[in-house]
Amino acid sequence: MLNGQKMTQPFSSAADTTVTCELEVHVIVGGEPQVTLPAAFHYHCADPYAVRLSIGATSSGTVDWTFALGLLKVGLGRPVGEGNVLVSPRRSSHGPVVRIVVRSRLGSAVLDMMASPVAEFLDRAEELVPAGTEGQHIDMDRVAALLLTTDE
User: Fold this and answer.
1) How far apart are the first and last CA of the chain?
2) Which DSSP state fits 70?
3) What is the per-residue pLDDT across 9-68, written as a single tens digit (0 to 9) for each?
4) Residue 111's closest CA among 41, 52, 36?
5) Inter-CA distances, 28 with 101, 107, 144, 152, Å
6) Would you state the pLDDT for residue 148?
7) What is the rounded distance in angstroms from the CA atom of residue 14 to the CA atom of residue 24?
8) Other CB atoms within 10 A of residue 85 CB
9) Phi, psi of 140 (to 5 degrees)
10) pLDDT band for position 131 (50/70/90)?
11) Bridge partner residues of 88 (DSSP)
12) Of the candidates 43, 44, 70, which has an alpha carbon nearest to the alpha carbon of residue 132?
């Protein structure tokens, strides 16, 4: 939360294959008032180039966005991205903030969150899969099977 609230659960790790960071995001959609929602970043070593952001905890589930881990890393320091996901650093009265703008054919949303838990999450992800070793974590047999599977 931008008011300095800490993450509800700093990090969790399942058999050293995942990293999760729970935090709060301030969401602005269209001209509506800002809403604060629970969110979580998820990283799994089986998909070493991607990060998933899950927003909300409602009876109907969460809204999930999957995008490049590198986009989030670069976005901590400078604006980056084009298309559906844009990430940029910002300043608030409470300290550094990461802004993520997500877009779909239905509209767009602006998501603001404290930068420090995001940076810690990225550090943990890099501990799990050091930069340059991502290819060693991809199950190419699984990828080939998914590509060859047809839905009929």
Assistant:
1) 46
2) H
3) 334 444 578 899 999 999 999 888 999 999 999 998 888 889 999 998 766 688 899 999
4) 36
5) 10, 11, 40, 40
6) 79
7) 22
8) 19
9) -65, -30
10) confident
11) 99
12) 70
